[in-house]
Amino acid sequence: MICPACQATLPAGHTCQSVWDELYYAQPLPAPSFDAFCMQHLDSYCFSAKSYAAHLTRLYIGVEYANDPKQLAAVQRWLNGTVSLTKPALLATVGTRTVCDVYLAVAQGQPAMQVAHLWIADVWQAYQPQHALAKEWRTLALNSFTGKSYGLSFWRN
């Protein structure tokens, strides 16, 4: 079977959710892996504009800023407030690698962390048309968190 959301070829008897659950509880995975999974399963995890913003921005911070906890906290605080967002148009593709690729590679003895990083990078690359939006949302979150309008010198890479 094929997952309708991410187009993964599913292992027999599995859904993408069951593959994710099995990996999550059995293997250490990089922090942005959940956001990568969500950005490939939009109907389930990114229904609202806020949830889309949360996962896209967290994926961005995970990949580009090593999952910096201060930045992630700023995004959470920002989105817990009253913000007006418009959900962007969905992309035609959400990546060529999926959680099922990680699952199969791990089953063949490859290190979960290494394979998961490749998957996360692939998902982030698929969202290249929305990188500027993720950066904008991150900036809004950091400005909201710090109370500043400009200059994020406090928030360094």
Characterize the structure shown.
This protein has 157 residues and is an all-alpha fold. It is built from 8 helices and no strands. It has a domain at 31-81 and 94-146. The radius of gyration is 16 Å and the shape is globular.
Main β-sheet description:
none
Structural class: mainly alpha
Estimated share of beta-strand residues: under 5%
Give the helix level as a range of percent: 55-70%
Order of H and E elements: HHHHHHHH
Uncertain runs are 148-157
Radius of gyration: 16 Å
Distance between the termini: 42 Å
Number of strands: 0
Shape: globular
Tally of DSSP helical segments: 8
Mean pLDDT: 92
Key features?
single chain; 157 residues; mainly alpha; 8 helices; disordered C terminus
List the helices and strands and how they pair.
Layout: H1 16-26, H2 33-39, H3 42-45, H4 49-64, H5 69-80, H6 99-107, H7 112-126, H8 131-146
Helix pairs in contact: 1-6, 2-4, 2-7, 4-5, 4-8, 5-8, 6-7
Summarize the structure.
The protein is an all-alpha fold and 157 residues long. It has helices at residues 16-26, 33-39, 42-45, 49-64, 69-80, 99-107, 112-126, 131-146.
